[in-house]
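Justification of computing resources. Each target in the renewal requires a structure prediction run like the one illustrated here; the chain below, 225 residues long, is used simply to show the kind of job we budget for.
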Amino acid sequence: MSPDGGDLPLKGSAGEEYDDPMEARAMAWMSRAKQGDPAAFDELIRALRGRAFRLAQSWVGSRDDALELAQEAFLKTYRARDTYREGEPFLPWFHRILRNTCYSFLRGAKRLRPRSLSAPRPGGEDEGDWEIADADGPAPEEGADAEERSAAFWNGFRRLSARDREILALRHFQELSYAQIARQLAIPEGTVMSRLFHARARLRTALEGRFGDEFGSPSPKEARR
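Resulting structure tokens:
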């Protein structure tokens, strides 16, 4: 059901339907915000702030920095509301704003450096990859009972590149489907599968077998990519 009470999914400017409830709601809220309804943007923030924080934290590590950067990304989004094209998917647009905000922060802290194989691939679906030098500080909190396990995981996770962190965060932290990830990153589902396969393999190596196959048994489709 749409935010306005309809039973049909929202449609984009080209007539395509969006069956992802969050995308449909986000598009409607952003359209209303563009038309001058600040309460609609407040609803958008409430719905997406958890997602934005978790993704920002996967890149920058620090909980406080992630909170500030997520807030900054929402502020940039609101200021740019007049440039949002109504009927276009909102989540990929916001994802780019959040990513660029986090990358700018990491560059300013001299923590972001390009990888040797970071050139975009033909077709333009990749935007390059980056190594992140993590600042000293505690791992994100997971609860006292899981402190040792959490520290081991985040120490391994921090050894991954920015693109590996992104795809794993979308799949495992936000629990998005392949189709949802593909729409959010504006890439084919096959590319999502390929990225996940290789990111999981690198994460298993970084974790040195401490978590078994928890983050890694690829599906047959992923293994063939």
